Amino acid sequence: MKRTQRVVHLFIVLAGLFLVLVGCQKTSSQQASSSTSNVKQELLDHKTLTVGLEGTYAPFSYRKNGELAGFEVDLSRDIAKKLGVKVKFVPTKWDSLIAGLGANKFDVVLNNITKTPEREKVYDFSTPYIYSRYALITPTAKAGTITKLADIKGKTVVEGTGTSNEVLAKKLGAAKILPSGDFATTLGLLRQNRADATINSTAAWYSFAKSNSTKGLKFRAVPDAQQKPDEVSALLTKKTPKLRKAINQAIHDLRADGTLKKLSEKYFGGDVTTK
Protein backbone atom coordinates (compact mmCIF):
# COMPACT_ATOMS: atom_id res chain seq x y z
CA MET A 1 0.00 0.00 0.00
CA LYS A 2 1.35 3.42 -0.95
CA ARG A 3 1.98 6.05 1.66
CA THR A 4 -0.90 8.25 0.42
CA GLN A 5 -3.30 5.31 0.58
CA ARG A 6 -2.16 4.51 4.12
CA VAL A 7 -2.83 8.11 5.23
CA VAL A 8 -6.27 8.06 3.65
CA HIS A 9 -7.06 4.68 5.25
CA LEU A 10 -5.90 5.90 8.67
CA PHE A 11 -8.00 9.04 8.29
CA ILE A 12 -11.11 6.98 7.50
CA VAL A 13 -10.53 4.71 10.51
CA LEU A 14 -10.04 7.66 12.87
CA ALA A 15 -13.08 9.44 11.47
CA GLY A 16 -15.17 6.33 11.97
CA LEU A 17 -13.93 5.96 15.55
CA PHE A 18 -14.75 9.61 16.23
CA LEU A 19 -18.30 9.17 14.96
CA VAL A 20 -18.77 6.09 17.14
CA LEU A 21 -17.58 7.95 20.26
CA VAL A 22 -19.79 10.94 19.51
CA GLY A 23 -22.73 8.59 19.02
CA CYS A 24 -22.07 6.88 22.36
CA GLN A 25 -21.78 10.20 24.17
CA LYS A 26 -25.00 11.40 22.58
CA THR A 27 -26.83 8.22 23.54
CA SER A 28 -25.51 8.45 27.11
CA SER A 29 -26.55 12.09 27.30
CA GLN A 30 -30.01 11.28 25.93
CA GLN A 31 -30.43 8.47 28.47
CA ALA A 32 -29.39 10.73 31.36
CA SER A 33 -31.74 13.46 30.12
CA SER A 34 -34.59 10.95 29.78
CA SER A 35 -33.94 9.61 33.28
CA THR A 36 -33.97 13.12 34.77
CA SER A 37 -37.14 13.92 32.86
CA ASN A 38 -38.87 10.81 34.23
CA VAL A 39 -37.98 11.80 37.80
CA LYS A 40 -39.24 15.35 37.31
CA GLN A 41 -42.57 14.02 36.07
CA GLU A 42 -43.13 12.48 39.51
CA LEU A 43 -42.63 15.83 41.29
CA LEU A 44 -45.57 18.03 42.31
CA ASP A 45 -43.79 20.84 40.49
CA HIS A 46 -41.55 19.48 37.71
CA LYS A 47 -38.89 22.09 38.47
CA THR A 48 -38.91 21.83 42.27
CA LEU A 49 -38.35 19.24 44.99
CA THR A 50 -40.92 20.05 47.69
CA VAL A 51 -39.69 18.95 51.12
CA GLY A 52 -41.75 18.61 54.28
CA LEU A 53 -40.01 19.16 57.63
CA GLU A 54 -40.67 20.64 61.06
CA GLY A 55 -38.16 23.47 61.16
CA THR A 56 -38.22 23.40 64.98
CA TYR A 57 -35.89 20.50 65.82
CA ALA A 58 -32.22 21.47 65.94
CA PRO A 59 -29.86 20.39 64.54
CA PHE A 60 -32.02 18.59 61.97
CA SER A 61 -34.05 21.61 60.87
CA TYR A 62 -34.61 24.88 62.71
CA ARG A 63 -34.74 28.65 62.33
CA LYS A 64 -31.58 30.75 62.43
CA ASN A 65 -32.03 34.51 62.01
CA GLY A 66 -35.44 33.80 60.56
CA GLU A 67 -34.14 31.37 57.92
CA LEU A 68 -34.32 27.59 57.83
CA ALA A 69 -31.05 25.86 58.71
CA GLY A 70 -29.88 22.44 59.81
CA PHE A 71 -28.55 19.11 58.62
CA GLU A 72 -31.68 18.05 56.77
CA VAL A 73 -32.13 21.50 55.25
CA ASP A 74 -28.65 21.44 53.72
CA LEU A 75 -29.06 17.79 52.72
CA SER A 76 -32.32 18.61 50.93
CA ARG A 77 -30.59 21.37 48.97
CA ASP A 78 -27.75 19.03 47.99
CA ILE A 79 -30.19 16.32 46.88
CA ALA A 80 -32.14 18.85 44.79
CA LYS A 81 -28.92 19.92 43.07
CA LYS A 82 -28.20 16.30 42.19
CA LEU A 83 -31.69 16.03 40.69
CA GLY A 84 -31.23 19.27 38.75
CA VAL A 85 -34.16 21.06 40.38
CA LYS A 86 -34.83 23.80 42.92
CA VAL A 87 -35.91 23.05 46.48
CA LYS A 88 -38.96 24.30 48.38
CA PHE A 89 -39.48 23.75 52.10
CA VAL A 90 -42.90 23.37 53.73
CA PRO A 91 -42.53 23.64 57.53
CA THR A 92 -45.19 21.45 59.14
CA LYS A 93 -45.95 20.26 62.66
CA TRP A 94 -44.69 16.75 63.35
CA ASP A 95 -48.10 15.14 63.79
CA SER A 96 -49.19 16.43 60.35
CA LEU A 97 -46.05 15.62 58.35
CA ILE A 98 -46.78 12.04 57.34
CA ALA A 99 -50.44 12.79 56.64
CA GLY A 100 -49.31 15.78 54.58
CA LEU A 101 -47.16 13.54 52.41
CA GLY A 102 -50.13 11.27 51.82
CA ALA A 103 -52.21 14.32 50.88
CA ASN A 104 -49.62 15.35 48.24
CA LYS A 105 -48.48 18.48 50.06
CA PHE A 106 -44.82 17.54 49.50
CA ASP A 107 -42.73 15.16 47.40
CA VAL A 108 -40.67 13.89 50.31
CA VAL A 109 -40.26 14.30 54.06
CA LEU A 110 -36.79 14.74 55.59
CA ASN A 111 -37.38 15.02 59.31
CA ASN A 112 -35.41 12.48 61.34
CA ILE A 113 -37.88 9.77 60.33
CA THR A 114 -37.22 6.08 60.93
CA LYS A 115 -38.91 2.96 59.61
CA THR A 116 -41.76 1.28 61.44
CA PRO A 117 -43.79 -1.70 60.19
CA GLU A 118 -46.91 0.49 60.05
CA ARG A 119 -45.21 3.17 57.95
CA GLU A 120 -43.68 0.65 55.56
CA LYS A 121 -47.14 -0.66 54.69
CA VAL A 122 -48.10 2.72 53.22
CA TYR A 123 -44.89 4.60 52.41
CA ASP A 124 -41.45 4.10 50.87
CA PHE A 125 -38.12 4.95 52.48
CA SER A 126 -34.85 6.04 50.91
CA THR A 127 -31.49 4.55 51.78
CA PRO A 128 -30.51 5.71 55.32
CA TYR A 129 -28.53 8.94 55.71
CA ILE A 130 -28.24 8.94 59.52
CA TYR A 131 -27.74 6.16 62.05
CA SER A 132 -29.35 7.65 65.14
CA ARG A 133 -28.12 6.37 68.49
CA TYR A 134 -30.36 6.60 71.51
CA ALA A 135 -30.00 8.70 74.63
CA LEU A 136 -31.69 8.28 77.99
CA ILE A 137 -32.29 11.60 79.74
CA THR A 138 -33.72 12.02 83.24
CA PRO A 139 -34.10 14.73 85.86
CA THR A 140 -31.04 14.72 88.10
CA ALA A 141 -33.22 13.54 90.97
CA LYS A 142 -34.07 10.35 89.05
CA ALA A 143 -30.50 9.67 87.87
CA GLY A 144 -29.85 6.99 90.50
CA THR A 145 -32.97 4.95 89.78
CA ILE A 146 -33.18 5.16 85.97
CA THR A 147 -29.80 4.18 84.56
CA LYS A 148 -30.76 2.00 81.58
CA LEU A 149 -33.64 1.71 79.13
CA ALA A 150 -35.28 -1.18 80.97
CA ASP A 151 -35.69 1.07 84.03
CA ILE A 152 -38.45 3.14 82.39
CA LYS A 153 -40.91 0.27 82.86
CA GLY A 154 -43.82 1.59 84.89
CA LYS A 155 -42.52 5.17 84.66
CA THR A 156 -43.87 8.37 83.08
CA VAL A 157 -41.91 9.40 80.02
CA VAL A 158 -42.20 12.32 77.62
CA GLU A 159 -41.95 11.66 73.86
CA GLY A 160 -42.96 13.07 70.50
CA THR A 161 -46.26 11.58 69.33
CA GLY A 162 -45.75 8.95 66.63
CA THR A 163 -41.95 8.92 66.91
CA SER A 164 -39.76 5.85 67.12
CA ASN A 165 -38.88 7.05 70.64
CA GLU A 166 -42.53 6.73 71.65
CA VAL A 167 -42.76 3.28 70.05
CA LEU A 168 -39.71 2.11 72.00
CA ALA A 169 -41.00 3.59 75.27
CA LYS A 170 -44.28 1.70 74.89
CA LYS A 171 -42.41 -1.50 74.05
CA LEU A 172 -40.36 -1.12 77.23
CA GLY A 173 -43.49 -0.80 79.35
CA ALA A 174 -43.71 2.90 80.18
CA ALA A 175 -46.81 3.47 82.32
CA LYS A 176 -47.67 6.87 80.85
CA ILE A 177 -46.41 8.93 77.92
CA LEU A 178 -46.65 12.71 77.91
CA PRO A 179 -46.72 14.19 74.38
CA SER A 180 -44.18 16.85 73.42
CA GLY A 181 -43.79 18.86 70.23
CA ASP A 182 -40.08 19.66 70.46
CA PHE A 183 -36.87 18.78 72.30
CA ALA A 184 -36.71 21.95 74.42
CA THR A 185 -40.25 21.34 75.70
CA THR A 186 -39.35 17.74 76.48
CA LEU A 187 -36.39 18.79 78.62
CA GLY A 188 -38.51 21.47 80.29
CA LEU A 189 -41.02 18.85 81.40
CA LEU A 190 -38.19 16.78 82.88
CA ARG A 191 -36.83 19.78 84.79
CA GLN A 192 -40.31 20.38 86.20
CA ASN A 193 -40.35 16.72 87.35
CA ARG A 194 -43.55 16.13 85.37
CA ALA A 195 -41.91 13.08 83.78
CA ASP A 196 -39.33 10.54 84.90
CA ALA A 197 -37.37 10.26 81.65
CA THR A 198 -37.25 10.64 77.90
CA ILE A 199 -35.73 8.47 75.19
CA ASN A 200 -34.25 10.63 72.46
CA SER A 201 -31.19 10.86 70.22
CA THR A 202 -27.62 11.58 71.28
CA ALA A 203 -27.33 13.98 68.32
CA ALA A 204 -30.21 16.13 69.57
CA TRP A 205 -28.68 16.28 73.07
CA TYR A 206 -25.21 17.25 71.84
CA SER A 207 -26.64 19.99 69.66
CA PHE A 208 -28.82 21.37 72.48
CA ALA A 209 -25.97 21.27 74.99
CA LYS A 210 -23.76 23.43 72.73
CA SER A 211 -25.75 26.57 73.48
CA ASN A 212 -28.12 25.74 76.33
CA SER A 213 -27.82 24.90 80.00
CA THR A 214 -28.35 21.25 80.89
CA LYS A 215 -28.56 21.91 84.63
CA GLY A 216 -30.97 19.59 86.40
CA LEU A 217 -30.67 16.90 83.73
CA LYS A 218 -28.75 13.63 83.50
CA PHE A 219 -27.73 12.33 80.07
CA ARG A 220 -26.72 8.76 79.27
CA ALA A 221 -25.76 7.47 75.82
CA VAL A 222 -27.44 4.10 75.24
CA PRO A 223 -24.91 1.43 74.14
CA ASP A 224 -25.57 -0.23 70.77
CA ALA A 225 -25.69 -3.59 72.56
CA GLN A 226 -28.67 -2.32 74.56
CA GLN A 227 -30.52 -0.80 71.60
CA LYS A 228 -29.41 -0.72 67.97
CA PRO A 229 -29.24 2.70 66.28
CA ASP A 230 -32.24 3.78 64.21
CA GLU A 231 -31.80 4.28 60.48
CA VAL A 232 -33.04 7.73 59.45
CA SER A 233 -34.30 7.97 55.88
CA ALA A 234 -36.29 10.20 53.55
CA LEU A 235 -39.99 9.29 53.46
CA LEU A 236 -41.83 9.09 50.12
CA THR A 237 -45.12 7.78 48.78
CA LYS A 238 -45.20 4.51 46.86
CA LYS A 239 -46.34 6.46 43.79
CA THR A 240 -42.85 7.90 43.12
CA PRO A 241 -40.44 4.95 42.57
CA LYS A 242 -38.23 6.89 40.14
CA LEU A 243 -37.86 9.75 42.62
CA ARG A 244 -36.94 7.29 45.36
CA LYS A 245 -34.29 5.73 43.12
CA ALA A 246 -32.88 9.16 42.22
CA ILE A 247 -32.76 10.24 45.88
CA ASN A 248 -31.02 6.98 46.79
CA GLN A 249 -28.38 7.68 44.14
CA ALA A 250 -27.97 11.26 45.37
CA ILE A 251 -27.44 10.09 48.96
CA HIS A 252 -24.95 7.48 47.74
CA ASP A 253 -23.00 10.14 45.82
CA LEU A 254 -23.07 12.60 48.74
CA ARG A 255 -21.73 9.90 51.05
CA ALA A 256 -19.02 8.93 48.56
CA ASP A 257 -17.75 12.48 48.02
CA GLY A 258 -17.66 13.25 51.76
CA THR A 259 -20.56 15.74 51.80
CA LEU A 260 -22.65 13.74 54.28
CA LYS A 261 -19.77 13.50 56.72
CA LYS A 262 -19.02 17.23 56.45
CA LEU A 263 -22.66 18.15 57.12
CA SER A 264 -22.75 15.79 60.09
CA GLU A 265 -19.60 17.24 61.62
CA LYS A 266 -20.96 20.75 61.08
CA TYR A 267 -24.28 20.16 62.82
CA PHE A 268 -23.65 17.26 65.21
CA GLY A 269 -19.97 17.61 66.05
CA GLY A 270 -19.21 14.13 64.70
CA ASP A 271 -20.13 11.64 62.00
CA VAL A 272 -23.61 10.15 62.56
CA THR A 273 -23.97 9.05 58.94
CA THR A 274 -22.25 5.66 59.25
CA LYS A 275 -23.19 2.46 61.11
Automatic annotation (TrEMBL):
It comes from the Bacteria. Residues 48-271 form the Solute-binding protein family 3/N-terminal domain. The keyword Transmembrane does not apply. Keywords: Signal. Gene3D superfamilies: Periplasmic binding protein-like II. PANTHER family: AMINO-ACID-BINDING PROTEIN YXEM-RELATED, MEMBRANE-BOUND LYTIC MUREIN TRANSGLYCOSYLASE F. This is Transporter substrate-binding domain-containing protein.
